[in-house]
Amino acid sequence: MTDSFDGKIDHAFGGVRAVDPSHRVNFIGLETWLKNNVPDFSGAPNYFQFNGGQSNPTYKIVTPEKSYVLRRQPAGNLLPSAHGVDREYRVLTALSKTDFPVPRTYGLCDDLTIMGCSFYVMEMIDGRVIWDLTIPDMSHEDRRSTYFRQIETLASLHNIDVGLVGLSDFGRPSNYFSRQITRWTGQYRMAEATTIDPMERLISELPKLVPKQDRTTIVHGDYRLDNMILHQSRPEILAIIDWELSTLGDPLADLAWFLMAWILPASERASFRGADIGELGIPNIEEVIDRYCQLTGRTGIENIDWLLAFTLFRLAAICQGISRRTQQGLANNSHALSAAQRVPILANCAMHFASKAEA
Known about the structure:
Blueprint: H1 9-13, E1 16-17, H2 27-37, E2 46-50, E3 58-62, E4 67-72, H3 85-95, E5 105-109, H4 112-115, E6 119-123, H5 140-158, H6 176-191, H7 197-205, E7 217-219, E8 228-230, E9 237-240, E10 247-249, H8 252-258, H9 260-263, H10 277-280, H11 285-296, H12 304-327, H13 339-358
Antiparallel strand pairs: 1-2, 2-3, 3-4, 4-6, 5-6, 7-10, 8-9
Helix pairs in contact: 5-11, 6-12, 7-13, 8-12, 12-13
């Protein structure tokens, strides 16, 4: 069972609402911190919570003069290495000094006496966050342009010199996929509720065919349409957001994650839902890969089946973690309730590509 779909995904996941009682914080102490640390912050703020997302609670802070965004760690017993808002802040701050589209950062707070958790504040960018991958209100031409803008922006991220932006120590540069398999296997085990045979097979088989890493770049970690802020009326990307999973690693992990929309079952929200993408103007998977290769100096992508199998395995492990947080009453929205049912679906899909990789 997956999230129900009634053609109103953007409404369900986008926008803001009153702050959920379970995510209320010490707003009085926060206001003092904002006035002391954010340049030109003034006026009595109002607080709202963004819809969507299962991870770090995100708030819109509105003052008479300006709006801001606050990202904080969630409450509860967190899985190791998860919810690193300090890492988000660091990579955003570094990239904001380039022409790569990210929000400007204003301040990071790791003083737990303020809100009981770490948080940071960044620029509020006025644009659209779109969850429906078919982007139904766009023209054929703009929809096609938007998808090519996405892959072009990803290529530009992977072409950034990590040393020049001060991120040489942002992660270990080698053996990325091997370390990722270990990490997500560990995360899955800590959140595991019942034995899922295809997950057990993936944990056993994926390490045997890890592709050789030939490049190390900044990896976003969750590169997809709904982690972008688009211009209100043009096919233009104003900012890439949600850098919680960013690190240094193999850029092909980002490419494979982006390609999930083309390979997931139609029942999955993060897919094209069985739509005729050619009729919509959305490029096919071969066109996307070709454009990425052109912009990054590659002649092609080897081991694509293994990359897609790993990607789906990783998503299944993430969904298992969301399910765990749901059971603890800490998940960020009601759509997290279906996460547990998604795990075997994703694992079976991953095994399909793993079997192709082994052939």
